[in-house]
Write a structure and sequence with these properties.
alpha+beta, 4 strands, single chain, 2 domains, 145 residues
Length: 145
């Protein structure tokens, strides 16, 4: 199915990203459409997987205190094993394959500096990893996800 998003769809998506619990009637008022027209658009966006689901955004009190990005350089042909091992670490909340000097970026969350240090040591000692470089995230300037 072809994915076509017009300006009204973009406005609906933006509002839902801000608050996925907005009632259809409120969304309809904001985009100047009828409630049924908004429901039809939402169904189309869901059916075409432009909208894949609705989620909870955690407040600051529920988020881990520390986040770090771990740049990982792999030994040759070790990607699958390292990714599998990273998946088993609950503190590793995301893993991205990248191009350039490093092969992967692992995002790590921890509640204390000691916990973060332990996770970083664990990652650095994994078989198949040639080198890591870690950066602690100090603040988020913006996040469009």
């Amino acid at each position: 199915m072809k994915r076509h998003i017009d300006e009204i769809d973009r406005r609906l998506i933006t509002r839902l990203q801000e608050n996925a619990r907005l009632p259809t009637a409120a969304l309809a008022r904001e985009v100047s459409l009828s409630r049924s027209a908004v429901q039809e658009r939402m169904e189309r966006l869901e059916k075409s997987e432009i909208i894949k689901g609705y989620t909870v955004q955690l407040g600051d009190l529920a988020k881990p205190v520390l986040l770090a990005e771990v740049m990982i350089q792999l030994e040759q042909k070790q990607s699958a094993g390292v990714v599998g091992a990273l998946q088993k670490i609950p503190h590793c909340i995301r893993c991205l394959a990248v191009s350039g000097e490093y092969d992967l970026i692992a995002e790590v969350a921890a509640d204390t500096p000691e916990e973060l240090d332990s996770v970083l040591d664990r990652i650095g000692g994994m078989p198949g990893i040639k080198r890591t470089s870690s950066s602690i995230i100090l603040s988020t300037k913006f996040d469009r996800r």
